[in-house]
Amino acid sequence: MLKAFGYAAQQSTRRLEPFHFERAEAGAGEIEIEVLFCGVCHSDIHQVKDEWSNTVYPCVPGHEVVGRVRKLGSGAARHRVGDLVGVGCMMDSCRQCAPCKAGEQNYCEGPNSWLATYNGPMVPAEKAPGERNVYGRDNTFGGYSDVLVVPEDFALKIPAGLRPEVAAPILCAGATTYSPLKHWGVKAGQRVGVIGFGGLGDMAAKLAKAMGAQVTIFTRTEAKLAEAKRLGVDAVLGSDLKALAALKASFDLLLSTVPERHDVNPFIPLLKRDCTLVIVGALEPMAPVNQQEVAFHRKSVTGSLIASLAETQEVLDFCAEHRIGPDVQIIGIDEIDEAYDKVERGEVRFRYVIDLASLKAQRE
Amino acid sequence: MLKAFGYAAQQSTRRLEPFHFERAEAGAGEIEIEVLFCGVCHSDIHQVKDEWSNTVYPCVPGHEVVGRVRKLGSGAARHRVGDLVGVGCMMDSCRQCAPCKAGEQNYCEGPNSWLATYNGPMVPAEKAPGERNVYGRDNTFGGYSDVLVVPEDFALKIPAGLRPEVAAPILCAGATTYSPLKHWGVKAGQRVGVIGFGGLGDMAAKLAKAMGAQVTIFTRTEAKLAEAKRLGVDAVLGSDLKALAALKASFDLLLSTVPERHDVNPFIPLLKRDCTLVIVGALEPMAPVNQQEVAFHRKSVTGSLIASLAETQEVLDFCAEHRIGPDVQIIGIDEIDEAYDKVERGEVRFRYVIDLASLKAQRE
Q1: Are the beta carbons of A228 and A235 closer than 8 angstroms?
Q2: Which pTM value belongs to this model?
Q3: Which of A174, A233, B132, B286 has the most neighbouring CB atoms within 10 Å?
Q4: Hey, where are the domains in chain B?
């Protein structure tokens, strides 16, 4: 076993605390990664606080992980020792189902769905009675730690020209917004609206703009209007009903990145006929949708879940090529409580990234 | 002016009563139709009772109208006197907007949207301030009457081999379900689920089956299970959670025909990945949709509104060709109160059609 050190929540009411644990050594086809940086995603907080009622404790969050390959398990040949690699939300999938075979591991339909980088299988054994847990474990420990061991094919290559601390949030915030932009075929000249201007909104706006779309951000935070201008995109207060009315039937795609239950009804009229609003931030029952507005213009409300491995590699390469990336603030692990509070209050601009070198001072 | 006689609601709390009124004579490009049969749609009841808060009184319902052309306005050449024709939900549209030009009049984006066969423009003048009402009127009187005058291109041809009383419900119930089956590309071998087994559900099941799909009806009425068997389709009680669980991820398309607010969450897991649930029956805020199930398999929830003129003609011809049609019960206009009560209690099997010959006895 491998000695590991990180930060964990021991229960839903506790803050993160130093945590010593063990990881299995890299087995066949696996690699051991020295973690350098890990992004702080709003879902880390949802999970730590058990807000989705499925958290396994202890919970070591972190699924925007960039590190350096330190050791190769037997047969692992995809990466070399010393390579910079990234691990996103998934660290494995069933590899047997139709989506996995089609390269859409993020929609894995295996009995336990995909294996999350932390908190274990998406469908834990006790929720799939009669099924064996294909991963043989009910918890995984994420990137708020000094070392990670994953199957080599679930580690993405960090392209040259992308700093590791900037690459980290691309692995979730970037991938989660890139996938629907690509799936719904965003192209130059189209108009894309981004609802919510946090870590995901920041990436969605930059990616859609780099794809040639005309981008409008909808935010409830007046102070963020200037930030949007800095990105060279339009911005509108989501509460400004007059401004919304003027944008009626003008968008080809709307992406909602708001990370909790919210009301999309004010935005549906902004879609053109036959167009789609994709919810990527929230994973709970939403406010009721007014079916009249939807049916009268055959609009769709849908959702999209993170991204496939191929899309995640694509968005890393796309960001390097277009010289875009998240706005990050580097923090030490000892600043995590304050960071969580600011994320919850919507005060982060736009993504905290933990420098795991800060763990050393904690360990000693 | 033309003397007309029909049944109208004078206010939301009143039942339908005999109503003498006048219609403008057929103008340029219009035709005068002697009404023979008119279907009773659940939306007639919603409208009469002002359940969508937009009813204009007096309200003469009826948008599943079949009749015989009696007179041609100047220049009208599409139909001949004596032809059997049908009029569905729309009797005109703006003819200027992109959807109208693309032949999708049912998604008309003109300032007043399309002109409903009864209750007037979909967007009445007072709801579009500053816009002129392109139709010059705020009410229209529908097919529960002895005569109708409409633009000739909004009258469909009733194909030989389709009895007029059977053709009537195809103009709304048939068209409304045919349009999404076609738009979402239902084809032989696919599996289609129909939620709700009333007038629309009956037509949806028959149409999907004729398209070669394997059809399952979901109903909350145990007594209707046998009716489905008679149609040669599967049927499941919507409340039978065990039966629903066994159908997980097996449907290519789900069509909800339930004509009021309802909960689609129990059915979303039945869709295959990337597939769609189309709501055609309800036009109000729905029960909150659980975004987790939607996002985890990139499913969509959408809506569809009646059908274009071309699709309405297509479904009439399709029904004649495949020798299918609604199960109808012919009633006299004097039986309308009892019919409404039974529709509301879900007791109709499956569509009441008024024989307008019964008006004569009322008038004399």
Answers
A1: yes
A2: 0.92
A3: A174
A4: 2-157+327-363, 174-303
